[in-house]
Amino acid sequence: MVADKNINPHLKKGAFAQNETSVSTLAQRILAGETSALAQGITLVESNSSKDEVKATQLFNLIKPDYVKNPSWRIAISGSPGVGKSTIIEALISENKEEKFAVLTIDPSSEDSKGSILGDKTRMESIGMMDNVFVRPSPSKNFLGGVSSKTREVMLLCEAAGYNHILIETVGVGQSETMVSKMVDLFILLVLPGSGDEIQGIKRGIVELADMVVVTKADGDRETVAKQSASAYKNALHILKGKYQNKSIPTIAISSLERQGIEKLWEEINKYKDYFNRENSINKSRKLQVGQWYDDQLKQAIYKKFLQDPAVQKNLKKHEKMIEEGAVDVWNLLSDL
What we know:
seven-stranded parallel β-sheet; alpha/beta; 14 helices; Rossmann fold
């Protein structure tokens, strides 16, 4: 089973105030690399309580110098449900035990409670007990882009705690759900064997945003099909250049179960790292990510403030009743707000 310390040992004990009365103490413990404090800090920043939002801001102000000074490698592992994201993450970490990994798994949410549907499942058993690995599942809360609304903040906490590799396992990304690509340094897209035909390969959307395409489950009777798919993707993507290197997007066929191709995948990841270090691109990447973060937060703040306006709330209730009674159509409502 995944160790409680790696999931969130404080989750069942109640709110933040019951476990940690001092934000400064919590910050010190996170900076010291305590996994229990990191889990507690994540619970704090994911809270929708206005009081917790104030404490979260205080926490970030205290840890900021450390996460700015020690940037981590942010890698998204994305793809449709069932493509093997968790299995590949386990294989990658098992092949590189010298680094510290924070794994953020984004689970689909319940429509009613907004909680994580898969949060009660044991995730990534083989790596959950490792001292160099922190696993944190979070509900998407129906936030688009394959991530949660607080994924950026959670990455900063993991960075402050000393994790130099942050792997984001998305909830499952479609052609239009590409937000995750704007918050990471490397975006790895996983696809299933048999999906790599020429037409699929050149679709606009998530495929062209990927820095690397990996065809999974290249084992058993699917090995030949997987290699054919990888070749088809490579042919289809040869006209696209990677964001960081003036070369075609790498395409790899791997088997996580048989550990085939994992070494090659790490080799390609390290090529991106070398490029970042050589060109000092990590700072450029962070500036772009922070700019996008500001833009997203600004839109959310404006939307929240708009909905809090008494006049708007009054009109919304009136419109809801009119729609339910069939007195007006939805497309005629915006002019009255």
